[in-house]
């Protein structure tokens, strides 16, 4: 950014839940608490550090236990002893005696492919986990008739990039067989297993307009009841952030922590995530949180840009204009302006 300078297997519950139904023990969707919270040492609304402790060091707490089912139907499993998404997937795989590579992604408190309930970097301590496993692969030829394909891509943190949103009326919206939740496994002869979302988005963006390419995707396994109920419609859903319920924050580096959600952080990371979607075509809550944590400790855009360049985020190659946009969202959130704008928009 030249403008700123260099910048054993887990036990299964003996009584299985009814297939494809929400478990009685799971909290209602409106009370889901997979809220965005801050990392250890980041600033909060009042400028104070959040009171968080590594989950493994909280001796005064009971061992964290989560309940899980496979989304297409299975007995209920007991999952514990993980600190990041990869370990969570491994625990689920051990519970159901399958390879961890079979798990595409997880949703919270619903078996449906609902991207508003996608498991990201946080799990509410009362949340029920549904694992969506690989289903039928599909291969389609796509002609890139416009510059933008209309996809928003995210990844599961364990090597699979998948479609989170398809823009209505876009090129991809008109392609049969391609659905939200599909893992993009291959483009032409290039395997994308193990690629991050931004790498997949970059490859799609670099395909010349007018080119026909082949995309191989793998959708989540479905059952006869999986489509019953309201659809997410491919649009971003609301979140019950700031509910005050404790969540388990998962990190790719370092231990997991139990935290209480902060509304300012939630609004800020939502805004940063929307900017990432506009700039890169990706959706990544953990990346948004990392950007917020860097910016919340800086007092001006120059220091923020230098900190971004000197962090692991330098590889994204953010432009100076985009860094200014990010700083604007962070500054508005810290001052409370972003919250006010969000509330005004909701009224109308």
TrEMBL record:
Domain PDZ: 139-206
Gene3D superfamilies xref list: 2.30.42.10
Domain of life of the organism encoding this protein: Eukaryota
Protein's UniProt name: PDZ domain-containing protein GIPC1
Chain intervals with Gly residues compositional bias: 231-241
PROSITE patterns: PDZ
Chain positions covered by the region annotation Disordered: 1-57, 226-255
Annotated organism of origin: Lingula anatina (Brachiopod)
Residue ranges, compositional bias (Polar residues): 14-23, 34-57
SUPFAM superfamilies: PDZ domain-like
Similarity comment text for this entry: Belongs to the GIPC family.
